[in-house]
Amino acid sequence: MKWSLPKHYNRRIARAIAEFDLIDDGDRILVGFSGGKDSAFLVYSLAVLQEHLSLDFDLRVLTVDLGFDEEADYTKLEQFCNKLEVEYEVKETEIARSVRQANQPCAKCSYFRKGVMTNYCQDNDFNKIAFGHHYDDAVETFLMSILYSGQIKTFRPNTYLSESEVNVIRPLVYLREKEIVTAQNIMEYEAVESPCPYDGDTKREEIKELIQSFADKKQVFYNLVAAMREGNEIELWPEELSREELKDEVNNLWQ
Ligand SMILES: Nc1ncnc2c1ncn2[C@@H]1O[C@H](COP(=O)(O)OP(=O)(O)OP(=O)(O)O)[C@@H](O)[C@H]1O
């Protein structure tokens, strides 16, 4: 294969693979490809690494056709995979119809999409699903979760789904989004537009702008990275008491 990855990208992806134990010998990995820049780079880098790593693993690329566009054409995606010599398949679904009336269409769509992929894994003997989430996605999700849901959490680079016995892996977690944008020249692929009418998650955009607004945005980004690590110092308020417990505690004060 004539394709290659610059050293810098190799190092970051290899770091994620080694640190989070993302790929093992004998793995069969199903790669989620939307046609966007992130998953295109994921397909590209896994195809290149398959040639160069000492690990022996299989790859197949899957696009879940969400059903938003009846005229959807996947030729460009297929040609990209052919060029990289990886198998490519499109799975048609009617997810669009089920999420149109939903309160949170994006969350529901992503849930159904993952369901389609795990079913595909079970039917075709794949043990891992790879997604193209990157460093900025992880930090933005962490901050969104605190600000909009009151929970301190983000997605993990490697998550075992016990019900379907599949691991979801995210090999690009150490790459910044701007590095992936630059990588479009390396892989000779132009991202296709998403057919989704809800594209452009406004909450995520808000968070992106917030991080960008700090004078020392790089330091702020890496402080958030530090905060989302287990083992980092945590000093939180005690758990909230139930209404009854609190009432008793307050009453005791007056006796
Ligand atoms: N229709 C789809 N079919 C298969 N996999 C998908 C699809 N949509 C998204 N994915 C996978 O889920 C990941 C996260 O999805 P999300 O919608 O957040 O994409 P994104 O950050 O816009 O990435 P991309 O640039 O690849 O579209 C993608 O990187 C890709 O691996």
Automatic annotation (TrEMBL):
**Stored InterPro entries:** Rossmann-like_a/b/a_fold, TilS/TtcA_N, tRNA_thiolation_TtcA_Ctu1
A Pfam family of the record is ATP_bind_3
- Would you kindly state one Gene Ontology biological process term found in this protein's UniProt entry? tRNA processing
Under the heading SUPFAM superfamilies, the entry gives: Adenine nucleotide alpha hydrolases-like (SSF52402)
- tRNA(Ile)-lysidine/2-thiocytidine synthase N-terminal domain sequence ranges: 29-188
Q: State where ATP binds.
A: G32, F33, S34, D38, V64, G132, D137
Instruction: Please give the name of this protein.
Output: tRNA(Ile)-lysidine synthetase-like protein
